[in-house]
Description:
Layout: E1 2-7, H1 12-24, E2 29-34, H2 44-54, E3 58-61, H3 69-74, H4 76-96, E4 101-105, H5 134-154, E5 157-163, E6 165-167, H6 180-193, E7 204-208, E8 214-215, E9 217-219, H7 220-233, E10 240-242, E11 250-251, H8 252-263, E12 268-272, H9 287-292, H10 301-314
Parallel strand pairs: 1-2, 1-3, 3-4, 4-5, 5-10, 6-9, 7-12
Antiparallel strand pairs: 8-11
Function: Catalyzes the two-step NADP-dependent conversion of GDP-4-dehydro-6-deoxy-D-mannose to GDP-fucose, involving an epimerase and a reductase reaction.
InterPro entries: Epimerase_deHydtase (IPR001509), GDP_fucose/colitose_synth (IPR028614), NAD(P)-bd_dom_sf (IPR036291)
Family: Belongs to the NAD(P)-dependent epimerase/dehydratase family. Fucose synthase subfamily.
Amino acid sequence: MKKVLVTGGTGLVGQALQDIIKNEQPNDEEWFFAGSKDADLTNLVATQALFEKVKPTHVIHLAAMVGGLFHNMNNNLDFLRNNLLINDHVLQTAHELGCTKVVSCLSTCIFPDNTSYPIDETMVHNGPPHVSNYGYSYAKRLIDIQNHAYHDKYGHLYTSVIPCNIFGPHDNYKPDVSHVIPGMINRMHKLRTEQPEIPESEKVFTVYGSGKPLRQFIYSLDLAKLMIWVLRHYNSVEPIVLSVDESAEVTIYEVAEAIAKAFNFKGKLICDTSKADGQYKKTASNAKLRSLLPDFKFTDFEEAMQASVLWYTTNYDQARN
């Protein structure tokens, strides 16, 4: 019987994993989803106590200090220190308790700023990351270094996945820390519900920045399915990019249009070019994933956006606003 501990198990991806496992009901696996209430993973003793309690054979490590562009720009030291602590505590405790496999979650935003595109798994360490999030990026890159070091010294199968931008139900919608999609969903909901005396057709939604940067977005439930596949079947220490195809890349303005469509918003969209854009593109290649799983079907972007907005409006009172 596999015992799977998911750190960060109550966040965006953790909740998606819970949904998939609930539907699957695997009889040879027991899953434990740990949130920040279960343990402060920046504290070694608390991390050890969590592992002693769950006694996992396998770990999906999602827990991290995360945030969007503006939150990262102002807090690089905190992102660096907290994530270094969390990652070291989880990997070392997994080693001490003899866990068979650990799958950690990295991100495409940790790649070098000056690089050729599309980016792939071999390019993570080829140069400095974007200045806006170097603290988070270096801490995440070191997971890959640490995985190789545990493998070299002990033969452990600790690996990592590199998803593109993730969105879906149970995201973090708090304005100061949210990523682009939940941030826009939150702002559009507010715009539609506040000042009801103004006709919606006269309301204006502001897209931060030029709207031109390109991004690949993966629906959290698709990512959850792929992470479960990695846990069960991907047996390499080398990281693997979990991303939609390059052809599915969209501009930030197109994201705003998809959100407006999901809300059935009748107003106008404008771009505020005084706001920062971040990296222009981070196109990732999923060729490695496609070579191993050629038939995987990703959820259509607009369909996934409809589901995400519906979840938010239905669960507004419980959402992380």
